[in-house]
Amino acid sequence: MILVAGPYRSGTGDDPRKLEANVRAMNEAALKLFRAGHLGVTGEALALPLLENAGSTRPGDAAYQEIFHPVAERLLDRCDAVLRIGGPSEGADRMVARARARGKAVYTGLDDVPAAR
Fold this sequence. Notes:
The protein is α/β, with parallel strands linked by helices and about 120 residues long. About 50% of the residues lie in helices and about 10% in strands. It contains four helices and four strands, in the order βαβααβαβ. A four-stranded parallel β-sheet has the order 2-1-3-4, sandwiched between helices. The longest helix is centred in the first third of the chain and has 20 residues, at about 15-35.
């Protein structure tokens, strides 16, 4: 399992179209990982539905703070590696640092990910 970590809010001004584009980019990377024999996952796939159920009304609100990054951190603990994509992102960089601290592989491009066994 490889966590795809990339920007979600960074540089979007919380514009819903830009947020959606960032999620789409992470999902596209996850799909490529899947087709290469891995299981690519995103924290957004788990956190966004929880945020909706928790009553979040905007990125950064109390429910977002409670759920968004903690979901990714818990998910990362179950993953074998991280694929860092996209541009600047404090959250994605935090996932990379956490992965490295736990001795997990960190890839910075799809071409860097080894073939699945």
